[in-house]
Amino acid sequence: MIEFKRELPECPVETCLMVMDGKWKPFIIRELLTGKKRFNELQKGVDGISQKVLTSNLKKMVADGLVNRTVYPEVPPRVEYELTTLGKSLSPVIKSMWDWGLNYQNLKSAGSG
To answer: Average pLDDT, stretch 71-81?
Structure first.
């Protein structure tokens, strides 16, 4: 069971937006939907994100129960990130955003909308 440390809004849409806040989390989730990734792989996959911002977002996502962080006892240390079951449950949300964005791009490029 995930222990939430902040009060959640009454509105479920607001709760979703609170958890997915910021510019980068949907892109991080998109990258992790394909499987485990190391930090550098995530940074390469999320164009334009800085190391500091990626670190901050991953910490929040771990705290919110969306991402697992696994540290392997190797030299040099290896750290992998992967979506939890809760994080994976965002797949249809990301897919819907992808589909909507693609439809919007198609409408705009066709000159309608």
So the answer is: 94
